[in-house]
Write a structure and sequence with these properties.
The protein contains 19 helices and 14 strands. By secondary structure, it is of the alpha/beta class. The chain has a domain of 147 residues: Isoleucyl-tRNA Synthetase, Domain 1, CATH 1.10.730. Helix 11 crosses helix 12, helix 15 packs antiparallel against helix 17 and helix 16 runs antiparallel to helix 17. The structure holds ligand ME8.
């Protein structure tokens, strides 16, 4: 029996086309999901769209279409980008799916019957774009702390969820489960800034707009977006208030909710309390990843600086985009994207370190051994150093992935390619060939081909298409984690395929000039 691993991303708002920052998240989740599968887990990977709310209702109105038509269109675009980026999600869920809507209604009723939801009147400072009520103390310079826009006084009849009831339990839980919130620095922020000062009951319904899931027993109310959105993690794997399915029993609790840092609050305060109200276990971990900035600035569709993943993929290729975002956004700090940086990384890492290595090695095998993978011949101490690097890199990649340090994991894989390039400089195969030292040359070429194979197997979770191109060039089907436990699984005697450039070098000045035009 394989151990299960349930990973989810946030569900993206269908307010418009997602930018490269939103897309980073699905790529990050994909890398983790692929790696877990390769490690032998039974992975369930869920993503999707968050489609209700006042903002989306307004957007649809602006576009002159019905909300459903609007969200159908945007959800289609979002899924298209996720597919273009070669992400291996198992299910793409939408909050307008009937199954989800029905369960949200039942959940709302169950919480109401339990006494955790009650009717009251909301008075507060409301930010329309963020669909959030704020207290005076939460405002920054009198404005919405999330988006910096004006808030307005608002009152409405509303249902409330008794967050306050769960405050002590939440503090106790977070303090006794240090792994629950990642990065850990976020844990203190949640405890000290939000939870310990006192949790106010949360308004969980609205009457001021229609585009939402109606409350069954009071249909002028629609369910507040966060109760609708967060429950996607359980409704889509078969949660049912009366009779949860086997799928739910198998996959819940989720192992990882991967989300951006701005919505940690919702996932580590509201969500645990909702789950406790339903008597359900909490997810094992919530990782609030940092943000991707463009030109060191927050990406905003309205700021006009949004960059889109599909445009980047047209320019650089899908794997180059995946590489950039996975590598440039470390575990806890924001990353930056510019075309200049992207070209530099592309040339230095993908074209030079990886592409050249593969091309040179396959070409040498063709030249010296007619493309046959040689037997090991004469060994020298330096070979051990290469093998040691490969072994360590394998170990470090796995360790880094266990700690969700995806950028570090990629660096660890690239250590193999760096070391292999150095091995070429050290062993100078062309000199060995000139001297007719073919027994030594065989070993050198074999070791290089095998190091590349192991590197490709580790690389697969991050750059799947590139790894597959490498398998093809090496003509090998030894591509699982089992095959990289020992150095030497690549079969001698088989023929490699023709070398093909993986990443053609980019002329930066020319490229930027073209882009300007
Ligand atoms: O928040 N860099 O949806 P969303 C990295 N519907 N990640 C970013 C980012 C950036 N520049 N900008 C946004 C929502 N994100 C809700 C989620 S979950 C039950 C409901 C991340 O479309 C953001 O943090 O605004 C979030 O995790 C995801 O993109 C979708 O953002």
């Amino acid at each position: 029996m394989k151990e299960k691993y349930y990973i989810s991303t946030a569900i993206t708002y269908t307010s418009g086309k997602p930018h490269i920052g939103n897309t980073y998240e699905i790529i990050l989740a994909d890398a983790i999901a692929r790696f877990k599968r390769a490690e032998g887990y039974d992975v369930y990977f869920q993503t999707g769209t968050d489609e209700h709310g006042e903002k989306i209702e307004l957007k649809a109105k602006e576009a002159g279409v019905a909300p459903q038509e609007f969200v159908d269109d945007v959800a289609h675009t979002i899924q298209g980008i996720w597919d273009r980026m070669n992400t291996s999600y198992d299910r793409f869920v939408r909050t307008t799916d009937k199954k989800h809507e029905e369960q949200v209604q039942k959940i709302f009723k169950k919480m109401y019957d339990k006494g955790d939801i009650y009717k009251g009147e909301y008075r507060g400072l409301y930010c329309t774009p963020c669909e959030s009520f704020w207290t005076e103390s939460q405002l920054v310079d009198g404005k919405c702390p999330d988006c910096g826009r004006e808030v307005k006084e608002a009152t409405e009849e509303a249902y409330f969820f008794k967050l306050s009831k769960y405050q002590d339990r939440l503090v106790e839980y977070i303090e006794s489960h240090p792994e629950f919130i990642q990065p850990e620095s976020r844990k203190n922020e949640m405890l000290n800034n939000f939870i310990k000062p006192g949790l106010q009951d949360l308004c969980v319904s609205r009457t001021s707009f229609d585009w939402g899931i109606p409350v069954t027993f009071d249909p002028k109310h629609v369910v507040y977006v966060w109760l609708d959105a967060l429950t996607n993690y359980i409704t889509n794997i078969g949660y049912d208030v009366d009779n949860p399915t086997d799928e739910f029993k198998k996959y819940w609790p989720a192992d990882l909710h991967l989300i951006g840092k701005d919505i940690i609050r919702f996932h580590t305060i509201y969500w645990p309390c909702f789950l406790w109200s339903l008597d359900i276990e909490l997810p094992k971990q919530v990782f609030g990843h940092p943000w991707l900035l463009t030109n060191n600035d927050k990406i905003g569709k309205s700021r006009g600086n949004a960059i889109y993943a599909d445009d980047l993929a047209d320019l650089f290729g899908v794997d180059a985009v995946r590489y950039y975002v996975l590598h440039e956004i470390p575990f806890a700090n924001d990353g930056n994207l510019t075309y200049e940086l992207m070209i530099e990384r592309y040339n230095s890492d993908l074209a030079n370190i990886l592409g050249n290595l593969v091309n040179r090695t396959i070409s040498m095998d063709k030249k010296y051994f007619e493309g046959i993978v040689p037997e090991i011949g004469v060994a020298e101490p330096i070979d051990e150093d290469l093998k040691e690097t490969v072994r360590n890199a394998t170990l470090h990649t796995k360790e880094a992935m266990d700690r969700l340090r995806v950028a570090d994991a990629i660096d660890a894989v690239f250590e193999i390619f760096r070391r292999s390039n150095k091995y070429i400089d050290e062993t100078t195969p062309w000199t060995l060939a000139k001297e007719g030292n073919m027994e030594r040359l065989k070993t050198v070429i074999y070791n290089l081909l095998e190091s590349i194979r192991i590197g490709a197997v580790l690389l697969h979770s991050f750059l799947p298409e590139t790894a597959e191109k490498i398998y093809h060039q090496l003509n090998t089907d030894k591509n699982d984690f089992e095959s990289i436990k020992e150095f030497g699984a690549l079969e001698s005697g088989k023929s490699v395929n023709n070398p093909e450039a993986l990443f053609a070098r980019i002329d930066k000045d020319k490229f930027l000039e073209e882009l300007q035009k």
